[in-house]
Amino acid sequence: MNGKILAIFFILALIIAGPGLYYLQVYHYYREVPAADAPQSLSAPGVDRQAVSLPVRDYKGIYSVSTPIGHRACFTTDAATAQTVAPIRRRRRLVRPVGSIASITARSPRISRQAAPPPISSRKTSRPRSTP
After folding, report:
1. Where are the transmembrane segments (predicted)?
2. Lowest CB count within 10 Å: 11, 42, 81, 132, which one?
């Protein structure tokens, strides 16, 4: 009987917590930008590194105070003006640690390639063994 009560408790907790978490993630922390606050134009760096003004139409944006990316938006702009904006360069992804950390890992290719010394049992000694 105790197992049934515990299972019912967990099922009820999931039924309440699931939609609650969904609401918090999708609706609670974000607010829609009012049409009066929508920008008429945005500036972006151009090909010649000078600021280019992009006219904005059909602006739909949200803002949040709980994330570092506080403002997100979708909008339409002129294709001819958008061609004058400099493309965004993506950074190369690092595949291993930077600096001396890579030299101490076991799988690192920077480890010395010298041959390992032979095991102690197979080493030849330079002094002869004394016979009893």
Report:
1. 6-24
2. 132
pLDDT tens per residue across span 40-57: 888 888 888 888 888 888
Question: Which of 70, 66, 73, 81 is closest to 35 using CA atoms?
Answer: 73
Q: Which of 57, 56, 43 is nearest to 86 (CA)?
A: 43
Is the pTM of the predicted complex or chain greater than 0.70? no
Would residue 111 be called left, alpha or beta, if left means φ above 0 and alpha means ψ between -120 and 50 degrees? beta
* Overall average pLDDT of the 94-116 stretch: 53
Distance CA 132, CA 130 (A): 6
Among 54, 46, 48, 103, which residue's Cα sits nearest to residue 77? 54
Tokens of 110: 């920077």
